[in-house]
Write a structure and sequence with these properties.
eight-stranded mixed β-sheet; disordered C terminus; 2 domains; single chain; Rossmann fold; 14 strands; six-stranded parallel β-sheet; alpha/beta
Length: 419
């Protein structure tokens, strides 16, 4: 089949962000399908494709045909500018969906407007539409207080509602997302849970002595956070912990924050003002380079703002990178990941907004290296058993393959799937 795949934030392994769509596209191609990826311009993206028709790029990356609009996006954009970017991408995507030859349309959020090509095409071309939901909107922005206007929230709620009704199937990345879809979708809509995954061949356990970061000695115990430095990530919690560690005179414990985002300048200023020399800021690191170094850290830090919608409604890439790299995880919010950490004992789950408990967890792991290493081994086993990229990509391929008979003109039935 010819699959038209929409993802505004598409990245390759040479970029510095998650590569779920790249890996899923590769799995679909391996299964015999052709994939055309439609995307925008991200500040962290890497695209080696020729110019086509002015500023629009079109070409092939590793077997994936890519159509890239000159629609930019950055973590530093204001809400208004992000909204303009979302709608600009949606409009251009609809135009592509009207012109391109394809058998199935696959769209992945965020943003929610990514579903618009599929919704519109249901009226014009009647092609199968599969919608992958990475975050629940408007639930998340409403609970975070980012969007308060009732008219805007109502419009988003309507778009969510119609997206589920026009989709032929949905994919959710976490238990909460799947549950949220089922609450608003028709009862007979197939919904599969396919979370983010671990690249087991890419992110592998490493040797602590090979870690080379300015400000870190071989004797230090080092926790790492990777990813966006935004409001949702709640990274002031990391600085609260660093302050608590300084009070305890635990100079042997360092916190490394890798990434970028709108909150980073404020975080750096606070660290400087409070003389938190146990916090080290690093810029964004390309995916392939990060994979080589992540397993050299002592513990991975899962940090999010204390927003209930996050508890079961997120599937952060960093978590799966940590466990694939064989390092234990400290998680500071409740939910399905915290439950998993507790069940399989590969880290420590603590309550939100509790720097004392967080510092206790770091000190415990630093003072008990053999237990921390055993937790890391358990983490890797969980990654291998439950979150292999190859296995989870196969689930998406199996879901897509169910449409081949319909495309050929036959009857079909798509069963409900869960992980």
């Amino acid at each position: 089949m010819k699959i038209l795949y929409f993802h505004q934030y598409f990245h390759t392994p040479r970029a510095v962000s998650g590569i779920r769509s790249y890996e899923m596209a590769q799995a679909l191609i391996k299964a015999g399908h052709s994939v055309t990826m439609v995307c925008g311009v991200s500040s962290s993206g890497v695209y080696d494709i020729p110019l086509w028709k002015g500023n629009v790029r079109r070409g092939y990356i590793d077997g994936i045909e890519v159509i890239q609009f000159p629609v930019k996006m950055s973590n530093y954009y204001s809400l208004l500018r992000r909204t303009v970017s979302f709608w600009s991408f949606a409009f251009n995507s609809i135009m592509i969906a009207l012109r391109e030859d394809y058998d199935l349309l696959f769209a992945t959020s965020t943003p929610l407007t990514a579903a618009l090509p599929g919704v519109v095409m249901k009226y014009f071309r009647k092609k199968p539409f599969v919608f992958e939901v990475r975050d629940l909107w408007p639930e998340l922005p409403r609970e975070m207080g980012v969007i308060k206007n009732p008219v805007v929230l109502g419009a988003m709620s309507f778009l969510e509602w119609i997206s589920y009704r026009k989709a032929d199937a949905c994919v959710g990345l976490s238990p909460g997302i799947v549950e949220g879809i089922k609450k608003r979708a028709p009862k007979d809509l197939p919904v599969a849970m396919i979370p983010n995954a671990s690249d087991l061949d890419l992110f592998v356990p490493g040797k602590r002595e090979d870690l080379r970061i300015d400000g870190v000695s071989e004797r230090d115990f080092v926790g790492v956070f990777t990813g966006t430095h935004g409001i949702a990530n709640g990274l002031n919690a990391a600085l609260d912990v660093a302050l608590e560690l300084k009070k305890r005179n635990r100079k042997d414990i360092k916190i490394v924050l890798i990434g970028d985002g709108r909150e980073k300048p404020c975080l750096e200023k606070r660290a400087a003002d409070q003389q938190l020399d146990n916090v080290i800021f690093k810029g964004r690191i390309p995916h392939l380079e990060l994979a080589k170094m992540l397993g050299r850290f002592d513990v991975g830090l899962m940090l999010l703002a204390n927003v209930p919608a996050f508890y079961y409604g997120t599937s952060p890439n960093k978590f799966f990178d940590y466990i694939s790299s064989g390092i234990p995880v400290i998680n500071n919010y409740p939910g399905w990941l915290a439950d998993m950490i507790t069940e399989y004992q590969f880290g420590v789950a603590i309550a939100p907004n509790d720097p004392v408990a967080f510092a206790d967890a770091l000190c415990y792991l630093a003072d008990n290296p053999s237990k921390a290493q055993e937790m890391g081994r358990r983490a890797r086993k969980v990654a291998e058993k439950r979150f292999s990229r190859e296995d989870l990509a196969s689930e998406l391929v199996a879901l897509i393959n169910k449409w081949e008979h319909r495309v050929a003109g036959y009857e079909y039935r798509l069963e409900d799937q869960t992980l």
